[in-house]
Design a protein that fits this description.
32 strands; about 900 residues; Aminopeptidase_N-like_N; Peptidase_M1; alpha+beta; 5-stranded mixed β-sheet; aminopeptidase; globular; Immunoglobulin-like
């Protein structure tokens, strides 16, 4: 663990590397307690750099030998301090030989080379390669690698690395070897090694180019029956990338390997993708519809990195969104296309925006706010964020919105033509888009350099006499750490107008030539305030603004309840149809939250439910949800999304001061009220959307299950014996994990007498399935009746361990991030528990600890009483000895900003 004094690294200080590398040869003698690594590097001085020193980075290594051009170097020939090895005044050309010793079985950080369940794995992004050998471990140093792996054949029969297998054979003493050669230049963060006792599913496919390629999915023995969906997703990804972007697989083989101990979701190492088992293993017995969809998306994401990240990589880590934002956009488009219907694409879009609003908008409003292309960092692992990924994807999507799909493709083609095999910047990508389409995108750069979520205030004035509508848009962006004032963004705002019958009206801007024919226009907001004048508007319309969520902004427009209900019933844009319902529900929830607070402050002795029942009833929301629920023309998946209320986190973001308990009480009251009022409609939807027969994860079947199960979750709020019996029967009879988990959740979050027995049966049935037991922990950590003591008890369960990131996330993160009212309990016990867990994780896995540390980074937005307890917990972590850079950066920013 790195405990040196944290230093801030700035983008403005970028300097080209002193030396470039042509080839890297590596030999590994694999042993869990002591692995020897011999590395030979062909280096040459970089004509674009002024320095003459060779600078290498290393962590937690024993340096055995160091030679330059065959000459052994003594301690006086180099400097080694703070993880940096410097060879001063090196020759212009140097063959550098390094021997290091590392200890994989003690590497609990899961970065570099480590052991999981007796097998060897690597994770080198962002700076894990320096835990394997001393190296110029930076993304703009690209080279061709040849790797020799040697190990005990009985223990490690499978030896894998990047590229193509060129040689393998036997060695004395029961050992064997495998030699791998990667024909493409890559940065060190894409290096990968896997060695162990694994089995694989494999298929040979004919590529568009006419070549054959071997595809393999490697797993531990006993998991082969869970690999077909990952294999199908890989094949679909290869086909899609050729059809959509003309990008084909460039290797003779492509491998996916699943590992249970992994900090991230997956890693795009060239030709050897290493995955968290969560995003590979699936069959109907253990995986939900959401799991199947996530596997498809993540397999696609990592495969698409083969071009957007591997063939063209980022110059430095400040440019991380160059590869991640672009590739998230690509995997989103892939998943939408795999559904294959307009309604399915809309559901996917809504899902993506929900993630953005629930996670990224709060990040933009907190102490860890940073631009899509950050200006500085202390620990790069802390910048694998929803801003870089999800907001970065929205920035890429805006190119397509502004340029059209054809124009976006032209920009992509030029990007690869210019930069294949290079390490480049976000500005290079923007330039390719601009040049290919002959557009000035200079102002668009502010999406990369300015942090915060822009706000767009809209107002409209209709003139019946001239049949014109003036739409005025004003943009602003709140201050964020280090950026008090913001310049106007280039914001695409997609707009439509609906007539009194709910039909789209043809649109024409003042001064436009030709007849009005488009029913959606993309307005380009580039100034602080702009007015757009529509002509030929025959009647006063209802506005549909920001269709398809055309930009990652907060739209402020004074819709009436009647207008929102109208849009929810008629808007041809599915996103805005859903959005209208969310706005209605948010208004209702905020009013109820205020009522809860008022009742508590007034000292009423009557139950809060009684107080809430006496406030004005909102019939518009109930009527709109009933109409949507019963509209058979709508996709079941869309109806499920429409019925799902904004989360407690989303409601919290609408409040000046967050009161988690009041929000929870208000939301639960509204769920119970809707369940009572829609009981028969929900029961009808439940019965009509059963999916008898064999399980299939296709979008249509998944949508029906989603609608059926959201109906069950509402009905369970009533604690009605008939409904609880439905849930119990579904729990017993379900032939898939989606229905099984939904039924168990309904029981656990109700007053059902047998829920304890149901939980125990579930555990006993799936005890050997780690991914299912993760769900079991999460279900209990996020249950309404859970509290800190519940989670402490579960943390003592024999199946729980902090050493496995998935298991830690399932329980600890599930409680701290997924159960706000229980975590933010008034006595502060939730924060004490959080501090204990952050400190414990910091000692073993700083990267995971830093993610947990962010649970309190927005502590200043809560009620004063909670703020004080959060501050004390943050200070407790801050004063912990040997705090890692990862955690220190988060805690310092939380307390400072």
């Amino acid at each position: 663990m790195r405990t040196d004094t944290p230093q801030t690294i700035y983008r403005k200080d970028y300097a080209a590397p002193n030396y470039l590398i042509d080839t890297v040869e590596m030999g590994f003698d694999l042993d869990p307690s002591a692995t020897r690594v011999a590395t030979r590097i062909a280096m040459r001085r970089n004509p674009a750099a002024a320095g003459r020193d060779i600078v290498l980075f290393g962590e937690e290594l024993e340096l055995v030998a160091l030679r330059v051009n065959g000459k052994a170097l003594g301690r006086g020939d180099y400097r080694l301090a703070g993880g940096v090895l410097t060879i001063p005044g090196a020759p212009a050309k140097a063959e550098l030989e390094i021997e290091t010793l590392t200890h994989p079985d003690k590497n609990t950080s899961l970065m570099g080379l480590y052991v999981s369940n007796g097998n060897f794995f690597t994770q080198c992004e962002a700076e894990g390669f320096r835990k394997i050998t001393y190296f110029p471990d930076r993304p703009d140093v690209m080279a061709k690698y040849t790797v020799m792996l040697r190990a005990d054949r009985a223990k490690y029969p499978v030896l894998l690395s990047n590229g193509n297998l060129v040689e393998e054979g036997e060695l004395p003493d029961g050992r064997h070897y495998a030699k791998w050669e990667d024909p493409f230049k890559k940065p060190s963060y894409l290096f990968a090694l896997v060695a162990g006792n694994l089995v694989c599913q494999e298929e040979t496919v004919r590529l568009k180019s006419g070549r054959d390629a071997l595809l393999q999915v490697w797993v531990e023995d006993g998991n082969l029956d869970k690999t077909q969906h990952a294999m199908d997703s890989l094949k679909n990804s290869i086909d899609w990338d050729v059809k959509r972007f003309g990008l084909d697989l460039d290797l003779d083989r492509f491998m996916i390997v699943a590992v249970g101990d992994f900090n991230m979701g997956a890693m795009e190492n060239k030709g050897l993708n290493i995955f968290n088992t969560k995003y590979v293993l699936a069959n109907p017995r253990i995986a939900t519809d959401v799991d199947f969809a996530n596997i498809e998306a993540v397999v696609g994401h990592e495969y698409f990195h083969n071009w957007t990240g591997n063939r063209v990589t980022c110059r430095d880590w400040f440019q991380l969104s160059l590869k991640e934002g672009l590739t998230v956009f690509r995997d989103q488009e892939f998943s939408a296309d795999m559904i294959g219907t307009d309604s399915g694409r809309a559901v996917k879009r809504i899902d993506d925006v929900r993630v953005l609003r629930q996670a990224q908008f709060p990040e933009d409003a907190g102490p860890m706010a940073h631009p899509v292309r950050p200006d500085s960092y202390v620990e790069i692992n802390n910048f694998y964020t929803v801003t870089v990924y999800e907001k970065g994807a929205e920035v890429v999507r805006m190119y397509q919105t502004l340029l059209g799909r054809e124009g976006f493709r032209k920009g992509m083609d030029l990007y690869f033509a210019r930069h294949d095999g290079q390490a480049v910047t976000c500005d290079d990508f923007r330039a390719a888009m601009a040049d290919a389409n002959k557009r000035d995108l200079g102002q668009f750069e502010r999406w990369y350099s300015q942090s915060g979520t822009p706000e767009v205030d809209a107002s409209a004035r209709y003139d019946a006499k001239s049949q014109t509508l003036e739409l005025t848009l004003e943009q602003s962006c709140p201050a964020t750490p280090g950026q008090k004032k913001k310049q106007p963004f280039h914001i695409p705002v997609a707009v439509g107008l609906l007539d009194a019958r709910g039909r789209d009206m043809p649109l024409r801007l003042d001064g436009a030539k030709g007849a009005a024919k488009d029913t959606t226009l993309v307005l380009e907001l580039t100034k602080a305030r702009q007015t757009f004048r529509f002509t030929g508007v025959s009647e006063k319309p209802v506005l549909s603004i920001l269709r398809g969520f055309s930009a990652p902004v907060v739209l402020k427009y004074d819709y009436s309840d009647a207008e929102l209900a109208f849009l929810m019933a008629h808007d041809s844009d599915p996103f805005n149809r859903w959005e209208a319902g969310q706005r209605l529900a948010t208004r209702r929830l905020l009013n109820l939250t205020v009522a809860v607070q008022a009742a508590r402050q007034s000292g009423h002795v009557v139950a809060v439910d009684t107080v809430l029942n006496n406030i004005e009833h909102d019939g518009a929301l109930t009527a709109a949800l009933r109409a949507t629920l019963n509209d058979q023309s709508l996709d079941p998946a869309f109806r499920e999304l429409a019925l799902t209320l904004p989360s407690e986190t989303m409601i919290a973001e609408q409040m000046e001061v967050i009161d988690p308990h009041a929000i929870h009480v208000a939301r639960q009251f509204l769920r119970r009220s809707l369940a009572r009022e829609l009981r028969e409609d929900l029961l009808a939807a439940y019965r009509a959307n059963r999916t008898p027969g064999d399980y299939s994860p296709d979008a249509g079947s998944a949508g029906r299950r989603a609608l059926k199960n959201v109906a069950l979750s509402y009905l369970a709020e009533l604690d009605d014996p008939e409904v609880l019996e439905l849930a119990a029967q579904q729990d017993v009879a379900a032939n898939n994990m989606t229905d099984r988990l939904a039924a168990l959740s309904a029981l656990v979050n109700s007053a059902a007498a047998g829920k304890g027995e149901a939980l125990q049966r579930f555990y006993e049935e799936f005890e050997a399935e780690a991914l299912v037991i993760d769900k079991w922990f999460t279900l209990q950590a996020t249950a309404r009746g859970a509290d800190v003591n519940t989670v402490r008890t579960l943390a003592e369960h024999p199946a729980f361990t902090l050493k496995n990131p998935n298991r830690a996330r399932s329980l600890i993160f599930g409680f701290c991030n997924g159960n706000p009212s229980a975590f933010h309990v008034a006595d502060g016990n939730g924060y004490s528990f959080w501090a204990e867990q952050v400190i414990a994780l910091n000692a073993s896995n700083p990267q995971v600890a830093a993610r947990l540390a962010r649970s309190l980074d927005r502590w200043r937005k809560y009620t004063p009483a909670l703020q004080e307890k959060m501050r004390l917990a943050l200070q407790q972590v801050a004063s912990s000895p040997k705090l890692s850079r990862d955690v220190s950066e988060v805690i310092t920013k939380a307390l400072s900003n």
